[in-house]
Structures are given as C-alpha cells and as structure tokens.
Automatic annotation (TrEMBL):
SUPFAM superfamilies: P-loop containing nucleoside triphosphate hydrolases, RING/U-box. Residues 303-338, 368-387 are annotated as: Disordered. This is Putative helicase-like transcription factor. Residues 423-569 form the Helicase ATP-binding domain. Residues 722-763 form the RING-type domain. GO terms for biological process: DNA repair. Residues 327-338 have a biased composition (Low complexity). SMART domains: DEXDc, HELICc, HIRAN, RING. Pfam families: Helicase_C, HIRAN, SNF2-rel_dom, zf-C3HC4_3. The lineage of its organism: Eukaryota, Metazoa, Chordata, Craniata, Vertebrata. It is found in: Nucleus.
Length: 967
DNA sequence: ACCGCCGGGTGCC
DNA sequence: ACCGCCGGGTGCC
C-alpha cells in the first residue's frame, strides 16, 4: 500500500501522482484495486450521467490552487487524511490543491468513490467573493446499473441528485450550448457520422505553411519535397514557440479555453508530435535528417568528420555500424564523454581540429545563457508570492475587462490585435530555452524488434560516409549500461521490450536526459496499463516524437497514450482527456469532436501515398496491378470440398438455429478453416479431421480435442482476437467451452470473479486449472510432410504455372508467395525445388536474427540469389522492406483486406523500381469467393468501427459466417 | 467570514 | 446567572 504524506510541500507535486495512484490509495484490498483497474476502461466509455448537485469547496485559504469561473476541477479521495478518512480533495488541472469538499458531502461521496460506483467530476460555475469556500457543481457518472444505488445512497445522506437532463457536462457547456443553439447544431452526431469523423481524424493533415527545409550536409540522401516539408515541420515543432492547442494568453495569464484553467506560468509546450505519414513515405529518413539537422538552437548536430583520404580505406568502420556494435572496451564505456566514446574509432587518431565537441565557443555561450535562464526560472518557481491571499477566485477576464476593471488589452475586441501587435513579452521570448536541456545530445529511438535492423541499415545508407555518427544499439545481454556512455552517443536505438525489461531495474535509459525520444511504430504503445507504456512515459526528454503509419487502430482511446507521451497538457492526465475530449467526442458531441480534430491537427503531420503537394503526387510509385485469378478445383478436389461443405453447413446451420454460434465459435472457425484449407491443398487437412462434436469420453480425449481446436484456430492465420483485450491473442489458451483467449486476460477474468468464473463469450463456467495450452512440441511434427507422398493441388499448379511463365519472360523478377497457412508454404517448397527456383522463407516462427538474414539475402541483387520468398501473411509485421520483389502471389484470401494491403505494400513502397503485379488466387465457387464478397462489404463499412462494442463485432461475425456458408 | 460556533465576560436602563 | 446578551477569537479535511 502506498502511504502518502500530505505535507506542505505538496502543492507542486505532479498531477500524474494524484491521478495515477488514485486506485492505490482508495482501494482497501488488492481485489478491489484489480476490479477498479479492470473497470476503468468500460467506465470511461459506457458511463451515463447520474445527476448533479451543488456542493461546497472549503479550506481555500490553505492552498495555492486557484480556479477560474467555469473551470473544471478534479476530485480525489484522500483516505489517509489524518482528520477525516472520508476526505475528498479538490484540485485544478495542474494538480494544485484548491481545497476540500465539505465534510458531510465528502462522507457521502467517499463511499461511492471508493467502491467505484460513480465517477464524480467538479466544475466551478459561479464564483464567490468569499476567500474561504466556494460552490462547486458535482456531476456523477457511472454504469447504468449503479445509477439507482448511487442516487439512493446520496439521498439517504441528505444529498439529492438533480437528475434533470440539463446536465452540466463541461466547463464551457453554457457557452457551447448557446453557440450550438444559435447555429442549430444541438443534434448530436449519428453513429455513422461519428464513425466517419473518427475514421477521417487523420486525413488531410498536411501542414503546408512551414515550407521546406534542406537537410544538413551530413545527410547523404537528397530529401524528396514532401520529406523536406516534414523536416521543416518537425524542426518548427521542436524550435518554434507556439502555445499548445487551446491555450491563449489573456492579460498576464495563460488560459486554457477548454478547461478554463489559467496559470501565470506559460504552459509547457510540446516539442515534438506525431509524424503519421503512410508507410513508405520515408518517416525513417526524415527522422534521421531531423537528428542531423536540428540540434540545439536549430543548428546541425555537431558530428565528427573524417578527412576523406585518411578515412576512406576504413570508411566502413567509421560508419554507424562500427559504433553500433557493443563497445567492449571499458575505456569507451566509462570514459569521459564524446571524445572517449570515439576512442575506438579511427577518427580519434586524427588531429582534433575537425572534432566539434561540446565546448566550442558558441555552445558555451548557449550553455551559460541557459544557466541564466534556468536559474531565473528557478527563483521564479520557488519564490512564494508574499501575498498569501493567493486563493482568490479569479473572475472571468473578459468580464473583468468589461467592467472596466483591468487591462484594456483584455477587452474582447482588441484582444486579437493586441496580442499580435504587442510584442512584449512575446510567447516566443518567454519560452527561452526552458524546456531544452542543452547538455542533452543523444536521441533515443525505440522500435519494435522487427524494424530494428531497418534503422541500422537506413542510418548506414543515409548518413554521409565521412561523418562519424555515434550510434549505439542498446540490445542484447552485453549491452553497455553506462549512462555516461549512452548519453554521449548521437543515437541510441533500442526496442520496446528491452526498455520495459530495464524499467524499474535501475534502467540507464531512464536516468538519462535525452535530447529527443522517438517512438517508432508508436501506435503499439496503446494500452496504458502495459509495462511498456509506463516505461515509455517515464523517459526524460526535451523533445518527443511518435512515428506511426496508423496512429489510431481501434478507437479514439488509443490517442490518449500518444498525447500522454507527448505531455500535451492537460490531456496527459487521463481525467481531463476523458472529460474534455474522449467522452464528449464518443457521445457525439460536435464541439467535442471539433476539439479532438483541432488537437490532432496541431500535433500531427500525415500524408498518404495518394496525397498531393502543389498538385503533384508526393511520391511517384510504380504502378500496382491487382488481379484475381480464379482457380478451378479438380473433380476429386471438388468432391472432397463439397462433402466437407455440406457437413459444415449442417453443423453451423444447427448452431444458428439454436442460437449457439458463439458458444461453438471455435468449432465454427474450425469448419471454415477446413474449407479454406481444402481450397489450398488437401494435405493441409491431415491433422484436423478427427474432431467432431459430442460428449467427451475421457479427460485426455477432451484435452486432445481442445488442443486440436486451438491449433485450428491459430493455424488458420485468421486474425483471431482475444475477446478480453480485443487484440490478437498472445499466449493463447483454450477454455473447455472452446473459446480462445490470451492467458493473462482470461486469468485476470477468473481471478476477479469471486465465486464462479464464467467464459466472457458463452457464460459457461471456467476454471483456471482447465485452461489448455498449445503444447510446445506440436510445432515440430508439422515438418513430417515427406516428398514421396507429395501431391499437387489446383492452386499449387496455378502458382507454378505463373512462376514458370514469368521465369521464361524475365528471370530477374522476384516474387513474394504469401499464404496464411505456414504448412501450405511448406508444401510449396517441394515444387519450387523441383523446378529449380531458389527461394527463402519468412514466417513467424523464425528468430529475428534469421529474419534479418533472410531479408538481406532476398534483397541482395546477386545473380544466384533467391527469386521467390515464401512469406507467411502475418510474419514480420509492418515496416518490412521487400522491394526486391515486384510480383506478389496471394495464395488465399484473408479475413481482413488491410492485412493483404499491408503485405502488398512491403514491396509496393518507396524504393520499388518496377511495376508491381499482384495475383490473388481464389477458388471458384468456394468459401474463398464468399470471403472476398465480405471483404468488399467491409471496405465500405471499414472494419473495426469506432464505438462498436465487443458483442457488436461478434454479431457481425455471426452474420459473416452465415454469408460464408450461404445460410 | 458582512457568517456560525465556541467560550469567557458580564448582567436594569 | 442552572439563563440571555455582547464581543473577541477563530475557522477545511
């Protein structure tokens, strides 16, 4: 249990502390804490208003937090308060305490808040002249089923909730309502409009006013226009001093127009943002250019130059690769900074003249300047205002101005011009160098393991050969953990996994003040409860970037994590994000959605492959030609298929009639999968024939069948998701009712239930001891398909026909042969070998090292290199660069057309020189054709709709299944 | 805090 | 003088 001392030094403690530990301090038991954490998500989304009431905030004079008229406040339980264990603290957006809720009301609220029956939110609508207390409007939110309990509980203690519909929702509700009424916009968005709006959230985010910027000399590759534009935008985001969105200067104060919070201090700006360009537009190159181009004060990164003639014989060694290997020499690790870190390189033998290091004159100047401003800032921050009568309720500034009270420049009409014309003190000058730690040099890049090698390659490729950029790959057990060493690098690259493994274990990465932290594929930090996310949020950096081709994957919720990483005040605190953006937006409030769009627009640059700049496409990729080749089954195959189909149809038809599709979901999937396997090759079915319904005879048999089903579900390659976390299953286990979940997810469900745990999908009773795992050794026996017994199939012949024809036309063309079934890939190896095709294989079971090796082999242009890559659809994930191929054969259709697109994009991307030809093999009159039909429907509707609940998705899947089986 | 509450001083008008 | 009234001290939770 965390004990918090409520001493007097706490008015400056960070707002994150207050809210993130909320459950720790309020929950009495662990199970309560788990329940609280587990229920946090649904609460935020599915909460309904219970009502509101007027309360009183007392004790204002003891605290420094001030509140504007109309400002939102946070309510935090303080169970450890020595005077009253029911205490409820009131804090403003910055987490500065304003006061407490009056005792009797707090006593009533404590019970409700502690049991998570409702979330209580406060807004201070009307002011008071009084320095000691003020009214606050408290609104209660929660799950529908808790509403009556909450209302009654409050009533019993003498607090009647006003349940009328004119609920106050946010600080500016009054003004929004009046604006909306005038414009006639009170009707909330329909679900379809909402979905569309979310879908398009990241569309058309092209910031064109920044112009273009040339990269520093040290960048070897000339940037394309859109990359120069991105570089310019990124530099501006790092250097320019504009107020964050929704903040404006009013008189002497900085005012947040959404929460009505204001502060004397300038709100911390966001140095960085989201580069959300489509895959293939060169986010990596642009980021490398940013690193080299924008050091402190917009100057290029001071990098050591090797003299051409001396360096050239060993040029390769001085390049990133050299530095990237773990520096074994202890002198480099523990040495004193830049020059020692370079000790291993050839360059250190050169006269020091070319070495630009930290103590060049102009940098010294900057440093001293920063010290000045830093100390100035410090005194400002620590010096308490002598007039301790701080807690005055500030009247609305416009209101004050209208009364003729204060500064005329706050008058509404003049406000805008006054801000522009009056340069003293400009926002720009106020920022000074405050946020930038000028001693910071290194950029930390965090990426998924799958793209790690890509970063190293691209650094090698895009950094000039005579520039010695210190790049360190922080990976592997031998990694150098010296902070001194790491912080003296120019670039440190690591993976999310390494970062979270280090986290909490005196992580050197967390002890360093980075110049810049870059999250590559940043959308993968999405779950705020994940250790990885926490590890990422805990990094110290003055500039923060997220690179992601798909910043939103499922819902607006995903955005929060990104904003929290960027530290976009005040939305980095979940409560304010929920109250001000997420809830209004998901409930169809137009103003809320508008705010969300503004927010995204301010921090994001996104161009798609089809975007244009000045009427010309950003990148001219070679053409892509997608065609479907129908495959006719042989008579024997057709007979076998029809037999399986009618069997399956009967079974599924029975489930549909009984309404037990969900209960038998795994079976249904297995049937579908078998049909899909029939379409590819009969041998794929060998393993999965025996299982049928019926009472299990022995536990061993049951177990065998469950494993069988689990294997079917997994082997199908369909993007089976865990119904608890809604992501692809991780550490899959199958329940006795044959539903597949991630082990941690279902384990949590079981441990949270008090008495009997039930399957989230079919409500059958489940036990932790009955979860069945996929046995490890299963993977091995798959290889047993022997060559003698090998036979062809129509689809195999179709592929081979294409490959042979192509080889005779142009033998230099390389192909990707893609299937969801890794066993199908194995089957395909035989005819490929037979016809003398050299090939490599890439699937999910391979180690990263092997993958890199295979990709390199495939990408190399050597004459006897592989011409075919057998690729499992889900392998590798995004970012894979397979531009050596210009021909793609999709052997079987995927549930999700986006997966296919992504796969095609691995070769149809920047760097592709040839036209790309894609062939999709679809068996005529089969489940595959139906899958394609469903894909088409989905492209209109766009799968993974926002706001759709888990059960909605399952229902739509049932509909899909019916369509597939033509029921 | 232009309140409420507490507790000591005080006690016709 | 076991009350009322006055006026100073005081005040979140």
């Amino acid at each position: 249990m965390f004990f918090r001392r409520w001493n007097f030094g706490w008015d400056r403690f960070s707002e994150v502390d207050i809210f993130t530990d909320r459950h720790d301090t309020s929950a009495e038991t662990l199970s309560q804490a788990i329940r609280a954490a587990a229920s946090e998500e649904p609460d935020a989304d599915g909460s309904v208003p219970f009502g509101h009431l007027q309360g009183t905030v007392v004790g204002l004079r003891y605290y420094t937090g001030v509140v504007n008229q109309g400002e939102m406040v946070g309510l935090v339980r303080q169970p450890q308060n020595p005077y009253d264990r029911n205490a409820v603290m009131v804090a403003n957006i910055y987490g500065n305490q304003v006061g407490h809720i009056k005792r009797e009301l707090a006593a009533a609220m404590a019970h409700i808040m502690d049991n998570n029956l409702a979330k209580v939110e406060g807004v201070v609508y009307s002011g008071t002249k009084n320095k000691f207390n003020m009214p606050v409007t408290l609104s209660f939110w929660g799950r529908e089923e808790n509403k009556n309990a909450v209302v009654e509980n409050m009533a019993r203690r003498g607090f009647k909730l006003n349940t009328s519909t004119s609920r106050p929702t946010g600080a500016n509700e009054m003004s929004y309502n009046s604006i909306q009424r005038k414009k006639g916009l009170t009707i909330p968005l329909t679900a379809a409009e909402l979905k569309n709006a979310f879908d398009n959230l990241f569309e058309g985010l092209v910031e064109s006013d920044d112009g273009e910027k040339e990269a520093a000399d040290s960048v070897a590759t000339p940037l394309l226009p859109h990359q120069r534009q991105a570089l310019s935008w990124m530099c501006a985001r790092e250097n320019k001093s504009t107020l964050p969105p929704f903040w404006e200067k009013r008189g002497e104060l900085y005012y947040n127009t959404l929460t009505c919070f204001s502060a004397k201090e300038i709100p911390e700006r966001v140095r960085g943002g989201i580069l959300a360009d489509d895959m293939g537009l060169g986010k990596t190159l642009t980021t490398i250019a940013l690193i080299l181009t924008n050091f402190h004060n917009g100057k290029p990164l001071p990098v050591e130059r090797c003299e051409e003639e001396r360096a050239s014989p060993v040029k390769a060694n001085t390049k990133p690769k050299m530095a990237s290997k773990p520096a074994g020499s202890s002198s480099a690790g523990d040495g004193a900074g830049v020059s020692d870190a370079a000790a291993g390189s050839v360059c250190s033998d050169l006269p020091q003249t070319e070495v630009i290091c930290v103590d060049t004159p102009d940098i010294v100047e900057i440093t001293s300047q920063s010290e000045k401003s830093a100390s100035k800032g410090k005194t400002k921050a620590t010096k308490r205002k002598p007039s301790k009568a701080a807690p005055v309720l500030l009247d609305d500034l416009d209101f004050a101005a209208a009364l003729g009270g204060s500064a005329s420049d706050a008058a509404p009409k003049k406000k805008k011009t006054a801000n522009k014309a009056n340069p003293t003190p400009s926002v720009e000058s106020l920022y000074l160098q405050r946020a930038d730690d000028l001693s910071a040099r290194a950029t930390l890049i965090i990426c998924p393991l799958s793209v790690l090698s890509n970063w190293l390659e691209q650094l090698e490729q895009h950094v000039r050969a005579d520039v010695k950029l210190n790049v360190y790959l922080y990976y592997g057990s031998e990694r150098n953990r010296s902070q001194k060493f790491l912080s003296s690098q120019d670039v440190v690259i690591t993976t999310y996994n390494v970062l979270s493994a280090d986290f909490g274990n005196k992580s050197p990465l967390h002890g360093i003040s980075w110049l810049r932290v870059v999250l590559d594929e940043g959308h993968i930090i999405r779950n705020p409860n994940a250790l990885m996310s926490k590890a990422v949020l805990d990094l110290k950096a003055s500039r923060r970037w997220i690179l992601s081709g798909t910043p939103i994957q499922n819902s607006v919720k995903d955005l929060w994590m990104l904003l929290a990483f960027l530290r976009l005040k005040p939305f980095d605190v979940r409560e304010w994000w929920n109250r001000v953006i997420q809830r209004p937006a998901t409930q169809g409030d137009r103003a809320g959605l508008q705010n969300l769009q503004t927010l995204v627009k301010c921090i994001t640059l996104r161009r798609t492959k089809s975007s244009e700049a000045n009427g010309r496409p950003l990148v001219s990729l070679p053409e892509k030609n997608v065609s479907v080749e129908q495959v006719e089954l042989s008579q024997q195959e057709r007979e076998e298929y029809e037999l399986a189909r009618s069997e399956g149809r009967n079974t599924i038809g029975r489930y549909v009639a009984e309404g037990t599709v969900l209960r038998n979901y795994a079976d249904v999937l297995a049937i579908l999968m078998r049909l899909r396997q029939h379409c590819c090759h009969p041998d794929l079915l060998a393993k999965t024939s025996s299982s049928d319904l019926g009472a299990a005879a022995t536990p061993a048999e049951l177990r065998e069948r469950l494993i069988e089903k689990l294997r079917s579900v997994l082997a199908s390659g369909s993007d089976e998701e865990c119904s608890v976390c809604l992501e692809s299953v991780n550490l899959p286990v199958i329940t006795h009712c044959a539903h597949v979940y991630c082990r941690p997810c279902i384990a949590q469900v079981i441990s949270t239930e008090k008495e009997i745990a039930r399957c989230p999908l079919c409500r059958s009773e489940i036990k932790a001891s009955e979860l069945v795992e996929f046995p490890q050794e299963e993977m091995e026996e798959e290889k047993s398909t022997n060559a003698e017994r090998w036979r062809a199939s129509s689809k195999v012949q179709a592929l081979m026909g294409n490959l042979l024809r192509q080889q005779s036309e142009d033998s230099s063309i390389k192909s990707l042969v893609v299937s969801q079934f890794t066993r199908f890939l194995t089957i395909l190896e035989t005819p490929l070998r037979e016809h003398g095709f050299t090939f490599v294989r890439l699937d999910g079971t391979m180690t990263q090292k092997r993958r890199t090796q295979v990709i390199q082999e495939f990408q190399s242009s050597s004459a006897d290199g592989p011409v075919v890559m057998l690729l499992s659809l889900k392998a590798g994930g995004v970012g894979l660069n397979l531009t050596a191929a210009s021909r793609v054969f999709l052997m079987d259709p995927a549930w999700n057309p986006a997966t296919e697109e992504q796969c095609i994009d691995r070769c149809h991307r920047l760097g592709q020189k040839r036209n790309v030809v894609v062939t999709k093999f679809i068996v005529k009159d089969s489940v595959e054709e139906n899958m394609v039909k469903i894909q088409r429907q989905k492209q209109d509707l766009v799968e993974k709709a926002f706001g759709s609940t888990n059960s909605d998705r399952k229902t739509s899947r049932i509909d899909d299944i019916k369509a597939l089986m033509e029921l």
